[in-house]
Design goal:
Layout: H1 7-15, H2 25-28, H3 36-46, H4 51-67, H5 74-80, H6 86-95, H7 105-114, H8 118-136, H9 142-156, H10 163-173, H11 179-189, H12 194-206, H13 213-219, H14 225-238, H15 244-253, H16 257-270, H17 273-282, H18 288-305
Helix pairs in contact: 1-3, 4-6, 5-6, 6-8, 7-8, 7-9, 8-9, 8-10, 9-10, 10-12, 11-12, 12-14, 13-14, 14-16, 15-16, 15-17, 16-17, 16-18, 17-18
Length: 312
């Protein structure tokens, strides 16, 4: 047997095809950090599995990776980017969320541009969002930065893309400080598509551009609670103290509990004196969810005031 093929791992791989149920967690953890030889065996077995079994397995691997950061199934997730089943390709992208390796940029762009599934395109767009942030922070090489910009802006202008894909692309492109991105946000905001308007408000917050604040403040009075919710969240992302009076009003008396909770969270991100006072009053609320959100928001303010502090 190949010395790089661990006996326990080989057994776990073969068990993927055995029995009516997928293997248990202990067995699946053996698939972490596969060597090239082990990955070769995995591919041979994986390609024989029924679609539903592959879906169940990749789903469980994703859950295990979230529960234990020491587990690494990235080689499996990379392989599954080309799986025939759209749900598996989508879950594979999600499984690679924490991975910032730039070698994933090209595969994600290809999935965004060429995959036949809107679901996969949308998930790929979301995954490219973390690279857009890295690009804006100057942490990518210029070549990769240009790839990200071209792919996201190209997708926004692609009339063959569904509205849902365009939404995710717009949200991912939002951190890029480019005139074309600002124009795209503005166009989405003034569109007749309610979902695009919501994504535009979300993107205004992610843009870190306080020039959007007047729009967001206006939309805090919108009759639609979903619009108010997104406007409130975006104000929290901008962390502009000019939004505090409106946020206090919604935190204290909005009819929609989700809007109230979002306002409390945004006050915690901004952290002014008046925001702190409002949050302290929220601690006296009869609503347990409001009290809990206010407590967490105050902790966020304390952590921001003293970034070296920590709680056991």
């Amino acid at each position: 047997m190949d010395s790089s093929l661990r006996k326990s791992t080989s057994k776990a791989i073969h068990e993927l095809a055995e029995g009516e149920e997928i293997p248990g967690n202990t067995t699946l953890t053996e698939l972490s950090g596969l060597s090239p030889s082990e990955m070769k065996l995995f591919r041979e077995v994986w390609d024989t599995l029924e679609t539903e079994r592959r879906i169940q397995t990749i789903s469980r691997l994703s859950e295990l990776a979230e529960e234990n950061i020491e587990l690494n199934f990235d080689t499996i997730f990379r392989y599954c980017l080309s799986d025939p089943e759209e749900n598996i390709r989508s879950m594979a992208i999600e499984g690679l969320w924490e991975n910032e390796d730039t070698s994933l940029i090209d595969p994600f762009i290809k999935l965004l541009e060429e995959d036949e599934s809107d679901k996969v395109q949308s998930t790929a767009a979301i995954a490219l969002g973390k690279y857009a942030i890295l690009a804006e922070l100057g942490k990518l090489r210029e070549q990769n930065t240009e790839k990200i910009r071209e792919a996201l802006l190209g997708a926004i202008d692609d009339r063959n893309k569904s509205a849902d894909v365009i939404r995710r692309v717009l949200e991912s492109a939002a951190p890029l400080s480019m005139p074309d991105v600002r124009d795209a946000i503005n166009n989405a905001y003034h569109s007749n598509n309610p979902d695009l308007v919501i994504s535009a408000l979300y993107s205004m917050g992610k843009s870190c551009d306080s020039s959007w604040l007047p729009v967001l403040l206006e939309q805090m009075d919108n009759d639609d609670p979903e619009i108010r919710y997104e406007a409130v969240g975006a104000c929290g992302e901008l962390e502009d103290e000019k939004a505090v009076p409106s946020l206090i009003r919604l935190a204290n008396g909005d009819d929609d509990i989700d809007v109230r909770m979002a306002a409390i969270q945004s006050l915690g991100k901004i952290g002014s004196l008046s925001a702190r006072e409002c949050l302290k009053l929220c601690l006296e609320s009869q609503n347990d969810a409001v009290k809990e959100a206010a407590e967490e928001a105050l902790q966020n303010i304390d952590a921001s005031d003293d970034p070296l502090s920590f709680r056991m």
